[in-house]
Design brief:
Layout: H1 17-42, H2 46-52, H3 54-69, H4 75-106, H5 110-141, H6 146-185
Helix pairs in contact: 1-2, 1-4, 2-4, 2-6, 3-4, 3-6, 4-5, 4-6, 5-6
Length: 186
């Protein structure tokens, strides 16, 4: 290091290269398993794609949350990403499933069905998201000794940031993709 600079570990939760690889593998495996489950339930490869869009949308919030909070992205944050992948798809499933139901039962055209289905799911999605966010806030705010606090704070911050942006963005992105690909298909 140049003169005048120093380096130190703030807490003992830094990851080795092998641990990082294992956690990334776990995240990828979780995403593949989620996609396979969705594909078997929807009996389609396109519908699970719409649902899985919520995962990259959530990463925007994770990035912003860590930048704003100034937290290091540690092993707890990676575990938060795995947790987040399982949670954010729930809101997208609620949205896509209701759009499908609206298309089948309403007699409306594709565009109107998507708009109606999305409008009717805004409140339930924001209610479930807000209860999860407020349930995780204590983990973000707890005052423990530095290292132990960081474990919970990083996990909560990754989950809160990702869940919040995903809940907002799914209503902008998923209906557009749904419309575009469903229109091309028919």
């Amino acid at each position: 290091l140049p003169p005048g600079f120093s380096a130190s570990m703030e807490y003992g939760f830094m990851m080795t290269g092998g641990e990082t690889t294992q956690i990334k593998f776990g995240l990828i495996a979780a995403l593949i398993i989620i996609f396979i489950i969705l594909a078997s339930l929807y009996e389609s490869f396109l519908q699970p794609f719409f649902v899985m869009l919520s995962v990259p949308l959530s990463l925007v919030g994770v990035f912003l949350a860590f930048v704003i909070a100034g937290y290091p992205f540690d092993s707890s944050a990676y575990i938060g990403l795995i947790l987040l992948a399982g949670i954010v798809v729930n809101n997208a499933i609620i949205l896509v499933d209701h759009i499908n139901l609206t298309r089948r039962t309403s007699g409306l055209n594709l565009r109107e069905s998507i708009i109606k289905g999305a409008k009717e799911r805004i409140r339930p999605v924001f209610m479930t998201t807000s209860t999860t966010v407020f349930g995780l806030l204590p983990l973000l705010l707890i005052q423990l000794e530095s290292g132990r606090r960081q474990i919970w704070s990083s996990l909560a911050l990754a989950t809160l940031g990702g869940l919040t942006t995903s809940a907002l963005f799914i209503f902008l992105v998923i209906p557009v993709f749904y419309y575009y690909f469903s229109r091309k298909k028919s």
